[in-house]
Give the backbone structure.
Amino acid sequence: QQQVKQSPQSLIVQKGGISIINCAYENTAFDYFPWYQQFPGKGPALLIAIRPDVSEKKEGRFTISFNKSAKQFSLHIMDSQPGDSATYFCAARGNSGTASKLTFGTGTRLQVTL
Amino acid sequence: DTEVTQTPKHLVMGMTNKKSLKCEQHMGHRAMYWYKQKAKKPPELMFVYSYEKLSINESVPSRFSPECPNSSLLNLHLHALQPEDSALYLCASSQGQGSETQYFGPGTRLLVL
C-alpha cells in the first residue's frame, strides 16, 4: 500500500513538445505529492509539489495535475527543452510518524531531442 | 542558502576497510536523512534523524552506522561492506521530520571492491 507506480520508464520528446509523466498511488493517507528532478551525478532536486486539495498547480513550464478520486497525478512539461533531459521521480508522503517518509516512484528518464 | 554538502564525492573501499561519509547543512534544519540509490532506481530511505536522535532505521544492516554529532552534521560510518553496497549515498535535510521539502546533497558515489 506504500507503493507509487510511475510511467513511462523512459520518454523521448522533441524540443518544444510536451512531456507527460504519470503516477498512481494506493495509500489514501498520502497528503503531499512532490516531483523531483535528478541530473546524472547529482542529488534529486524538488521541482514542484501539490497537495490533494487542489487539482492543478503550475510553475512556469511545469504543471502538476491531480485526480484525487482516481488517486493519480501527473507532471506536464510544456515547451520541453534539451536542458530538461533528466530523470524525474514522483513521490508521495503521509503526514505523521513513519508515514512522513517519502515514497518514490520508479523514475522516468526523459530525453529531449533537438 | 539551501545547500547540503557531502564529502567525499567518490569513495573506493575494500570489504575490510572502515570509512565514513559526511553530510553538512547550515539551514537550521532539524531533520536529516540518509538514502541509498542504485543506478536507474529511486532513492531508498536508510535512516532519519530528528533533533539529533535516530527516528527511523529502515532495517539497515549494522555494517552501516549513522551518527548525528550536532544539528548540522550527519555521518555514515561504513565497515565490512559488501560489493552490493556500491551505490550513490544521498544525504537530505528538512526543517522538521514532518516538513514537506527535503533538500538533497549531491551524494557520495561508493564503490566496494
